[in-house]
Design a protein that fits this description.
Layout: H1 2-25, H2 27-39
Helix pairs in contact: 1-2
């Protein structure tokens, strides 16, 4: 179970870092994706 938790945390950290770098290089795209995500609620 500990190994699965570590893998899940690593994947989540990688996704957060990818989103952060994408927002840095293309703020318009990041804002568009955030608005689309928010529209789901």
């Amino acid at each position: 179970m500990s190994r699965l938790w570590r893998l899940t945390a690593l994947v989540c950290a990688a996704v957060v870092m990818a989103i952060t770098f994408m927002a840095y290089f293309s703020p318009h795209l990041a804002a568009d994706l955030a608005n689309r995500f928010w529209a789901c609620f």
